[in-house]
C-alpha cells in the first residue's frame, strides 16, 4: 500500500509539474540589431628594449564599437538559435609605456584611429517563458555565441584604411613579424539577458530582446602577450581586462506550432 501511495504521489506531482510548464511550440523569424562593444585591456610585465636593461613595460588598449546588423532566429520554447550578420565601426587607442629601473614612466608609442569590422554570429540560448497575459510573455536568456570575422580594417590617424590581415600596421604583427590570419579575430562570448513577445495576431508576434555579452579573448589578443614577451624580452607578463557590451534585438516571428 505504501508503495502504491508513493507511486501515486509521484505521478500526481509529475503531472502537476508538467501541467505548469509552458506548451511546446516552434517558431522562426528575423529582424535587426543595434549594440555597443567596449574593450579595456592592460598588459604589464618586466622588460626593456634590450636584454641587458631592467625595467617595466605597460601596454594599454581601448576600443569602442557601435554595432548594427540583422539576424534570423529559430525558437523551440526552451531554446533559441540565431544567425546574425553585423557590422561595426570603432575607435581605438593603444599606448605603450616603459620605465627603466629607478626611472619614471615614459611613453614609447601611442596609436589612435578608427576601424571597421564585419562578423558572422552563431548563438544558442536557453530560455524559459513566463506568460503575463494573452498577448504578452517574457523570458530570461543565457547562452553562448561564436563570432566569425569576415572583415577587419583599420585606419590609424593620419594614414589610409588598411586591411589588418595584410601586415601593414606595426601593432598588428605577431611575435614573428608576420600578419595575422583573419580567424585571429574570431571569438566566443557568453550572453545573458531577457526578452518578451507581443502577440500581434494568432501566430504572428513581435519579439524584443536585450542581451549583454562577455567576450572571451581572441587569438589576436593572446598573441599580443607572446609578441610583447619577445619584443621587449619581458617576463612576468599579465593581461587583464574586459570586452563586452549590450545588444538590442527586435524581430517579427511566426509560430508554427
Question: How would you portray this structure in words?
Answer:
It is a single chain. The chain is mostly beta strands and 257 residues long. It is 12% helix and 61% strand. It has two helices and ten strands. It has helices spanning 2-20, 219-231, and strands spanning 27-46, 55-75, 79-100, 105-127, 130-131, 136-156, 162-163, 187-199, 204-215, 235-255. It has an eight-stranded antiparallel barrel with strand order 1-2-3-4-6-8-9-10. The chain is elongated, with a radius of gyration of 25 Å.
Topology:
Elements: H1 2-20, E1 27-46, E2 55-75, E3 79-100, E4 105-127, E5 130-131, E6 136-156, E7 162-163, E8 187-199, E9 204-215, H2 219-231, E10 235-255
Antiparallel strand pairs: 1-2, 1-10, 2-3, 3-4, 4-6, 5-6, 6-7, 6-8, 8-9, 9-10
What's the short version?
This protein has 257 residues and is mainly β.
Radius of gyration: 25 Å
Number of helices: 2
Strand content: over 45%
Largest sheet features: 8 strands, antiparallel, barrel
Which characteristics define this entry?
257 residues; mainly beta; 8-stranded antiparallel barrel; 2 helices; 12% helix
